[in-house]
Amino acid sequence: MTDPLLRLYPVAYRAAYGQEIVDVHREMTADMPRAARLRADADLAAHAVRVRLGLESASPAGRFFALAAPFALAAGAVAGGLHLTRWYAGLVRSPAPVWVQLSTMDGAQAAHLLLSLLVCLGAVTALAGRWLPGAGVAVCGLVGTAVQWLVATPAPGEGAIAPATAALLTAAVVLSCPPDRRGDRQLSTAAGVMAAAAWFPVVVVDTGAFGVTTDYGAWPMLVLALTGAVLALRARSSGLRELGAMAVASSPLVAHAYTDAWLEVRPVLGLFLLLPIAAALTACFQVVRRRR
Amino acid sequence: MQELALLLLTALADAPRHGYAVAQEVKTITDGRVVPRTGALYGALDRLLAEGLIQVEREEVVGGRARRIFALAPAGRERLEAEAERLAATAREVRRRLGTGGAAALT
Fold first, then answer.
1. Distance between CA A243 and CA A226 in Å, rounded?
2. Is there a contact between B4 and A180 if contact means CB atoms under 8 Å apart?
3. Alpha-carbon distance A133 to A156, whole Å?
């Protein structure tokens, strides 16, 4: 069983350390029952794939996705949370009795709400410290959302492809986080604060108690960009890595803006410019700070 | 520092070891609570190597098969000492407060 697994490693790594890893794996799994050995094989396969993709925790890509993953979860939770709260606001505002509205809800809408709830619950659980079960639930919700958009839309055009792609990209970013860099407390806190700040004012606006426009989902994107800038300033970096991570994490918010803007591309492109603008401003600030 | 990384550094603190011996030492240190799998073990060892906290002391050939012997690097020793001091300070504070709490509860 081990040799086929070994072929998953890239050639150079396999040539240098393959035999050593095989020997250790063989010794470590020698007395294991079948189920435990399968789990150990899966763990070795995951390590091999990570090394092949350059996503191991020692690599720059691994560090990059470790930074992006909590914010991807947070952005997914913001998009899911906005969907849930908008549905709830409509439910409360409608003159029809709640039970009539609930009983006439179609299956696709109910599934979408349930999947949004899964993403939110999973993200909160992961960012609160239980990364593995939380990220698992969120990824299930995201993959389900993608499938639901593609299956439940009568003629899946741009309107379904954007949110479905965004959900899959978000799941991929979350899964790309190296195992020993998951659940960093500081990043999880920053991502949680970002999500709350991105979600709450929009809910206040939806309930008619806030005077700032949030058209096209501008506010959540602005919060994400500002979070990246703050992280860069704290790390005294140029901002490219942090705002790059925010860009990778932003797909649920971009898709949300795209569907909110009735599939118009220009406002969404305008929103996406927030990230490079924030990166440029951060870089300028750092240059000024270094000169002092 | 993540628990597995701390345990790997601890396992190498008193003697250089090869991968399997490191895994066994971690199992012993934690009384069987942590048994690293091969993928997780080598992922963490690669990261500690890249961060300069451990180093490959030598390669040895046993039964015609080469294996690396890992050792704690000077930076790893410093980091481990700092981590031990931090944990000891926390433990001291826990003991102090438990003592105070216990005394208060008895009065």
1. 9
2. yes
3. 31
Q: How many CA atoms lie within 13 A of A17 on its CB side?
A: 21
Contacts of B50 in chain A (CB under 8 A): 58
CATH number of B3-106: 1.10.10.10
pLDDT at A208: 63
Range of the domain at A9: 2-53
Break chain B into its structural domains and give their ranges.
3-106
Query: Is A105's pLDDT higher than 90?
Result: no
Identify whether residues A283 and A250 lie together within a single domain: yes
**What is the ipTM for the molecules in this complex?**
0.82
Cβ contact A229:A239 at 8 Å: yes
- A73 with A9, same domain? no
Number of domains within chain A: 2
**Which pTM value belongs to this model?**
0.72
CB contact, 8 Å: B68 with chain A? Answer: yes
pLDDT (tens digit per residue) in B14-47: 999 999 999 999 999 999 999 888 988 999 999 9
| B65 interfacial to chain A (CB closer than 8 Å) | yes
A64, A47: one domain:
no
* Strand ordering across the sheet containing B65-72: B17-18, B65-72, B54-62
Q: Are residues A43 and A117 in the same domain?
A: no
Please check the confidence at residue B86 and state whether its pLDDT lies above 50: yes
Find the angle CA(A258)-CA(A259)-CA(A265) to the nearest 5 degrees: 30
Tell me whether residues A57 and B43 touch, CB distance under 8 A.
yes
Distance from CA of B105 to the nearest CA of A (A): 32
